[in-house]
Amino acid sequence: MNDSAFDYVIVGGGTAGCVLADRLSEDADCRVCVVEGGPSDVGDENVLRLRNWINLLETVYDYGYTTTEQPRGNSHIVHSRARVLGGCSSHNTLISFLPFPEDLDEWVAMGCAGWDPVTVLPYRRRLKNHIVPVAEADRNPIAKDFVTAASEALGVPVVEDFNRAPFPDGTGFFSLAYDPATNKRSSASVAYLHPVMDRPNLTLKLETWAHRLERDAAGRLTRVRVRYADGTEGTVTAERELLLCAGAVDTPRLLLLSGIGPADDLRALGIDVLADLPGVGENLLDHPESVIVWETREPLPPNSAMDSDAGLFVRRDTGQPRPDLMWHFYQVPFTVNTERLGYRVPAHGVCMTPNVPRARSTGRLWLRSADPAHHPALDFRYFTDPDGHDEQTIVDGLRLAREVARTAPLRGWLKEEVAPGPRVSTDAELSEYGRRVAHTVYHPAGTCRMGAADDPAAVVDPLLRLRGQEGVRIVDASVFPSMPTINPMVTVLLVAERAADLILGRPGPAPDGSER
């Protein structure tokens, strides 16, 4: 196919890509193209109905990346990455938290000037997603009783809106990006793209797979080689900038396939080295979690927004401002990993999933082959931090979950602890169980991390420009230098909103409380 040229080419129509597509195409004279590997979500009830999220996993909407052998974790985890317009905001539970100010302070301390909370958090006022606490009609009675029991058992406050202000700890119903009246998503595609898809200066190339970046005649990295749904190939050119928004797996994968990454690794696969950039694929982050399952005495009432509507945060270290343990409360028994170990599946039940908010174990992503069709290797190195922080977090989480379960009114619902069962009680036993059934919250990040100009491991600078190259920026969770404490979707939205201003050279929103 003939080359096609635009002012901006966005590779990846996911959470960040949708924001950029909208913001950059606001200028009618600016030609914007989105290259997205999946289909449209417009009119697709499978995608748009939030409560159907679990039925999207490991389907045609999912790239389904596997995990390498995890000696201290679970080697059977499938890392779902969305293959649909809207990306993971069309695929996940849409739990929506602002990042903690301390999370952003940490980024600045790691060399990311301009990403401080005073600069970044005001972008929340620009977000187009409809983010609200779970509606009263969706608040299942057992989830309400979980919140009451968690507050009583662990002495944390009930939080009515987790986005109203930073919180050190607490329990309550999450805020979600959805329409409570219809259970429809307010994903990045619904909020940002659907209303503007008729703009004549906006082109969507769907079911189009980007597999190699190339230089233009001036040596700038602004051309992307793509494969269309019919198997033909073409090149799409950005006359101003190429914006990589393919996510923390596919953005580094694309760079590596293009010869940008650790030079020795690329040469070993027969890939010509375009740029020796050793940080590409390193610093692979996640929020690992485990699970504890109970059978309930009877089937639960049916109402829910997405079956994991409430949660809990605690501080084991009360001298710190941020929580260091999190739980999701599921109104369904999440048994995909416990079944493998022989635990029975209750006909009806609930579970809590203790989660490591700021895991200290970091991993790595690399190519197995120079063939773009081959999935990369994802080694999260779960539970390998030398101090055992992540492992102990899971053990403490399982113990505290039992305390909540023993507390009224939740205990009145519960018949029996199914997995791991009360006989698993020592730290060693809980660690072995907790790590073997560990899962992911589908939050990979960090693989093209942002950093200062003199940081040899940084892949992009604080303006999100690819190190040592002209014409390309990265805008997605791969640029995170460290993992936000909470579910990171809103952080990605904020990064994308700020990126639009960086690209266009315009000022950001006024600081909170300012008249500017």
Describe this structure as you would to a colleague:
- It is a single chain.
- The strands form seven sheets. Strands 1, 2, 9, 10, 11, 12 and 24 form a seven-stranded mixed β-sheet that branches.
- It is globular, with a radius of gyration of 22 Å.
- Helix 1 runs parallel beside helix 11 (489-504), helix 5 crosses helix 9 and helix 9 (389-405) crosses helix 10 (427-436).
- It has helices at 15-24, 45-48, 101-109, 117-120, 141-154, 188-193, 247-257, 263-268, 389-405, 427-436, 489-504; strands at 4-11, 32-35, 65-66, 78-79, 131-133, 170-173, 175-179, 184-185, 202-205, 209-214, 223-227, 233-244, 260-261, 275-276, 288-289, 292-296, 310-314, 325-330, 349-355, 364-366, 377-379, 414-419, 439-440, 472-474.
- The longest helix has 17 residues, at 389-405.
- The protein is an alpha+beta fold and 516 residues long.
- The protein has eleven helices and 24 strands.
- The mean pLDDT is 97.
- The N and C termini lie far apart (49 Å).
- 21% of the residues lie in helices and 20% in strands.
Q: Average pLDDT value?
A: 97
User: Which blocks of ≥5 consecutive residues have pLDDT under 50?
Assistant: none
Rg for CA atoms: 22 Å
Q: In this structure, how is the largest beta sheet organized?
A: 7 strands, mixed
Distance between the termini: 49 Å
Query: Roughly how much helix do the residues carry, as a percent range?
Result: 10-25%
Name a few traits of the molecule:
single chain; 516 residues; alpha+beta; seven-stranded mixed β-sheet; 11 helices; 24 strands; 21% helix
